[in-house]
């Protein structure tokens, strides 16, 4: 299987040329086992031009200070917790931080409601365990244990989806930088460079909140939604173009005008008021994040390319918009209908999207 056949390559694969250029030109102080300095990591995330002429593409559009705080945290012995509503680029930033610092973003644990402690600590090869008893050969290390041994960054996604007793497994790891293996009467001690990036969704129903003991061991950075319409449109447009290449969608099939209308709808319903602040609105239960806007555009592009004239139009967006907003068939549907009648219908040049959405509600 060749690299171009992989649906979603890791960050360190996609941006390998930028990482090599940054390492080669980086003359700032590097923490032990970091492949580049904190300054270079921030440049990798936010973009810039290197002395050798290499253009570094921005991976995150937002506050520079926020990224500096995140990187500075990882240079200490404090773990980093990225928290925010879905779609605020928590996972995206975590992956790129791990890729830039360790050159490896694959030391990953995905939190779920049914996971056990083994996912964070270690498991056993039961065939060997039965044949040999507890031994190093029978031990199956977790991604966290491997990161400790290698001095790399471990990523733990959706911390608050994990059961509380599984979360607390992290306390010893983060406090003592050590993972005991009582069955072998030994332990794994983390080497320099090891740290943990956790992500948590603060708007998930059925959430398992972090204990105060565990929360104290993280430095928390809140990931904000884009501050302005222009900033969010830029993010959506950039990500749509980048992901569209891997999905084999033709460039330019998503006009900026349609992206602006979609982002405007999401921002207004999310904030509970129109962009000019003159009209108050009811907000649906959906988060209507930037990530969801990107997904709606891609869905519309697929419709336009395979069943239309190749250019994204209002009727291609309508199904995705309605599906993203109407999660509750009663309450959300009424909110969406009211928004269509009071806001969308009254806007000049929005008649096409009004009619397309009305047909589907």
Task: Characterise this structure.
This protein is of the alpha/beta class and 361 residues long. It has two domains: 3-222, P-loop containing nucleotide triphosphate hydrolases (Rossmann fold), CATH 3.40.50; 229-358. The protein contains 16 helices and eleven strands. The strands form four sheets. The protein has a five-stranded parallel sheet. The chain has a two-stranded antiparallel sheet with strand order 1-2. A two-stranded antiparallel ribbon has the order 5-6. α11 (229-246) crosses α12, α11 (229-246) packs across α13 and α15 (331-344) runs antiparallel to α16 (351-358). The longest helix is centred in the middle third of the chain and has 18 residues, at 229-246. It starts with 10 loop residues before the first helix and ends with a helix. The model has no long low-confidence stretch (mean pLDDT 91).
First-last Cα distance: 43 Å
Count of discrete structural domains:
2
Number of strands: 11
The proportion of strand residues reads 5-15%
Question: Which fold name fills CATH's third level, the topology of the largest domain?
Answer: Rossmann fold
* Sheet having the most strands: 5 strands, parallel
Give the ordered list of helices and strands: HHHEEHEHEEHEHEHHEEEHEHHHHHH
* Class by alpha and beta content: alpha/beta
Q: Helical region count?
A: 16
């Amino acid at each position: 299987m060749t690299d171009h056949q992989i649906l979603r390559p890791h960050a360190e694969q996609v941006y390998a040329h930028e990482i090599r250029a940054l390492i080669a030109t980086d003359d700032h102080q590097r923490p032990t086992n970091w492949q580049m300095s904190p300054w270079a990591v921030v440049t990798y995330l936010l973009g810039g031009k290197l002395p050798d002429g290499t253009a570094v593409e921005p991976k995150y559009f937002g506050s520079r200070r926020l990224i500096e705080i995140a990187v500075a945290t990882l240079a200490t012995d404090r773990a980093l917790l990225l928290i925010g509503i879905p779609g605020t680029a928590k996972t995206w930033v975590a992956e790129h931080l791990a890729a830039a610092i360790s050159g490896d973003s694959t030391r990953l644990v995905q939190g779920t409601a049914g996971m056990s402690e083994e996912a964070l600590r270690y498991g056993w090869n039961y065939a060997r365990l039965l044949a040999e008893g507890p031994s190093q050969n029978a031990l199956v290390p977790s991604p966290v244990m491997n990161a400790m041994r290698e001095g790399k960054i471990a990523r733990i996604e959706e911390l608050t989806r994990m059961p509380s007793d599984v979360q607390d497994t992290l306390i010893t790891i983060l406090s003592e930088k050590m993972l005991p293996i009582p069955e072998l009467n030994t332990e794994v001690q983390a080497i320099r460079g090891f740290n943990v990036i956790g992500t948590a969704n603060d708007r998930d129903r059925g959430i398992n909140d972090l204990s105060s003991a565990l929360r104290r061991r993280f430095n928390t950075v809140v990931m904000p939604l884009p501050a302005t319409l222009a900033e969010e449109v830029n993010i959506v447009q950039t990500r749509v173009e980048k992901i569209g290449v891997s999905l084999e969608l033709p460039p330019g099939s998503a006009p900026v005008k349609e992206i602006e209308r979609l982002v405007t709808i999401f921002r207004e319903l999310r904030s509970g008021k129109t962009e000019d602040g003159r009209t108050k609105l009811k907000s649906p239960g959906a988060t209507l994040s930037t990530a969801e806007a990107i997904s709606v555009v891609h869905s519309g592009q697929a419709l336009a390319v395979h069943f239309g004239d190749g250019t994204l139009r209002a009727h291609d967006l309508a199904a995705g918009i309605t599906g993203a907003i109407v999660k509750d068939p009663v309450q959300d549907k009424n909110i969406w209908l009211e928004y269509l009648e009071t806001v969308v219908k009254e806007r000049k040049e929005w008649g096409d999207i009004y009619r397309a959405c009305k047909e589907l509600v």
